[in-house]
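CHAIN AND CONFORMATION:
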Amino acid sequence: MVTRISYSFTKTIPSYCNCIWKWKKTEAEIFRDVAIGKGVPANRIIIETKSTNTGENIRFSYRVLRNRNGLPSNVILVQKPYMGRRTLATFQKQWPGPICKLCVTSPNIDLLDYPNSEVGDLDDVITIVIGDMQRMDSYAKLGYQTFQRIPDDVWSAYNILHRSGMYNGHLV
């Protein structure tokens, strides 16, 4: 049973495509509402509300949990399908305490089945994935996350899509 959820951005993300950035609530509020809808008691959910990015969310969640309930011995990171590896890499770098068990999970959704009215169309999803690919490389170089080896064929596909100019709306 889920006993803690600690995830948030303090502001909704700016709108630059027809996708999740047009949500009226923060991700934490949306995830909290889904968890409550699935039967998790609201009083078992802790929301971290100060972060503006994944690294801050991890560090700030650590502090919230340490100050309220003590640190967990097991952590399950639930993330969007395209962001699991970057979340793991960020967690490995940003979590200041020891973890006995760590699991990263996301829904097993085929790329063509992922677009919908909440996340946007296929172009929106590809735009987000291209931005996350760029972050996998640049954030490791900046020290925000651990290095993750990205296969050459994946980089080749990234470069083709990036050079097309059609999917660059989520680049840093």
About this structure: Residues 1-20 have pLDDT under 50 and may be disordered. DSSP finds five helices and two strands in the chain.
